[in-house]
Fold this sequence. Notes:
The chain is mostly helical.
Amino acid sequence: MQESYLQAYRAMGSFRGDAKLATWLVRIVVNESLGRLRKMRRTAAVIPIALEPGEELPMSDPAQRNEDDPDQPEREMLRAEVRRILEAKIDDLPDVFRTVFVLRALEEMSSEDAAASLGIPEATVRTRFFRARGLLRESLSRELDIATGDAFTFLGERCDRIVERVIARLHDPPPGGS
Length: 178
């Protein structure tokens, strides 16, 4: 982002005013991003970083939390998990659809501004956005079908082991006692 704004600052004299300033800036950012993406593909593979066991996800500002709400940590965890899944599914979209989806849905650009930023017809933006939403919906649906299939399975063996350990500890004499 910083590099894009530096480029825009250096090229401010070449801004003709044919489009909105925001559209011109977005076009510079898109070009810079696409250039970096091409460079990354040539140089290295991206390896996703997973949380280590015991490591926690960063939580929102504690001052904003309602400490009386016992479900707050679960909601934050759920929100983080949904965000992770959505980001992964958006990343999986083909480049042409992902770019339009990000501009329209996340950056809340109009079809007209997105078209001007990408240098493509407005009808193409609308078509790609519609297709991107459909692909995303289909991908998320498959993910949820897989996830909910195992969500409520009964793990009998594991449950039996836990019950055996609890009963064994109940029969053990208390530490330091007679």
